[in-house]
Amino acid sequence: MAGWFEHAPPIRVEGGIRARSTRGSIGQEWWSRRFVDILEAVCDPGRLTRGRSYARRGQVLTLDLAPGEVTATIQGSRPEPYDARIGIDAYGAADWTRIEEALAGQALYRAKLLAGEMPPEILDVFDALRLPLFPAELDMECSCPDSGHPCKHLSAALYLLGEAFDDDPFLVLAWRGRSKEALLDSLRGLGGDEEEPDPLRVAEEPFGDRLGDFYSTAIPLSRLRVRATGAAPPPDLLLRVLEPPKVKVRHIPLADILRPAYRRLAEPPG
User: Fold this and answer.
1) Integer Cα distance of 112 and 117 in angstroms
2) Does the pTM of the predicted model rise above 0.70?
3) Per residue of the chain (270 residues), what is the pLDDT tens digit?
4) Who's near 187: CB < 8 A, 6+ residues apart?
5) Which of 86, 185, 210, 220 could cross-link with 214 by S-S, CB 3.0 to 4.6 Å?
6) 8 A C-beta contact, residue 91 and residue 113
């Protein structure tokens, strides 16, 4: 029978990459869950189950991500580890220019990304450009003899990739071809126009020259409007986005001292 081979327990390894999840679903954040949901909808359930077991046993030896490609080595039942590859389309420079301009045009999305967060609404930006963030199909191959799609070795690598997305949502974007550093550098240089000034762009002016209007709003109150959003931005958003002052108090950076105060100010009275 094509694709059949004798099931045998994998060779135990030391120092492999072990999934943090010990039971239930893998992936906690919305972006990693979205990725895992796609896998579980299109892949063979039996092999995915065995792949979760491999991931939790630490059978994956290496997992490396590059634009358009994830490579992994997985220890199976044979002495030689298997090589696996998971490919998607990485977007080119022209596409990323469009994506970055669209993200920069949404001040809240831009602010959250600069603060290291991944807003769920970012999916709408990618979909509107017909450049989906998450792949509907994966180009997968493994050196094992199983012709399943995917085999348990690929499944183990895919689940660990989902957990890696939990730790760093920008890996999703890096897989599509844009590193975190390149994206944030671009967003810092974009955003704001005459119609809607960028609220994160602050001109460097001496305080003495702004005594009369320092505390006034950059945007007229009549132009402010309620914006429908998901989760509220964190209270210490500006501390995350703006370059921290090079000031320390008893060897502690000033931003680290201010951060708890910002959070306490945001707490409801009571």
Assistant:
1) 5
2) no
3) 444 444 678 888 888 999 887 776 676 788 888 888 888 777 778 888 888 899 999 999 999 999 999 999 999 989 999 999 999 999 999 999 999 999 888 888 888 888 888 888 888 899 999 999 998 888 999 999 887 778 999 999 999 998 898 888 899 999 999 999 999 888 887 754 444 455 545 566 776 777 777 667 655 656 555 555 555 666 766 666 666 677 777 777 777 778 788 877 877 776
4) 100, 103, 104, 110, 113, 114
5) 210
6) no
Q: How far apart are alpha carbons 221 and 134 in whole angstroms?
A: 38
Return the C-alpha torsion angle 207, 266, 103, 204, nearest 10: 10
**Whole-angstrom distance, CA of residue 17 vs CA of residue 33:** 20
CA-nearest of 229, 257, 253, 245 to 112 is 229
Angle at Cα 169 formed by Cα 154 and Cα 69, nearest 5°? Answer: 40
The encoded tokens of residue 74 equal 């997985």
Helices (H) and strands (E) in the chain, counts: 10, 6
Task: Say how many CA atoms lie within 13 Å of 126 toward its Cβ.
Answer: 16
Contacting residues for 155 by C-beta, under 8 A, at least 6 apart: 39, 43, 47, 48, 50, 51, 52, 54, 55
Crossing angle of the two packed helices 152-167 and 45-57, in degrees rounded to 10: 60
Cβ distance 175 to 90 under 8 Å? yes
Calpha distance 197→104 (Å, rounded): 11
